[in-house]
Design goal:
single chain, alpha+beta, eight-stranded antiparallel sheet
Amino acid sequence: MLGTLTPQQIEHVLQSQTTGRIGCYAKGQVYVVPVTYAYSEGYIYAHSQEGRKILMMRENPNVCFEVEAIENMANWRTVIAWGQYEELKSENERQAGMSILQSRFMPVVTSATVMPSHGMGPEIVEKAKRAVVYRIKLAESTGRYEVTRGKH
């Protein structure tokens, strides 16, 4: 059975996943790239090094965000949302954004192999300082699902 997700189901998919895809457009070019994210109060939070995605979103802050929860080919949920890129520039904003990301990802760290073997040395701290912390304020979203009989 195919169907449309309710607003509550859309929120659940956004909250429950950690990887989505950002679609951005600038200078006649479309770019879609996967990102790890945290969802909080209508915003997608993420961070990145400077690169094509950040440059394009700075030029055109209108973006599309897609995420899915796939059990198998006949049991899935997907959400597509549209919103505005907002770079978190002040130190307070950056720290608040990183705190949301850390709160989301610390429970996901399940083994020593997920943690960097070199710890939080100066090179890791310096790289984190250079990261662009941003959020996407979601303005509109839609969701679809497929479920096989008996799997409601």
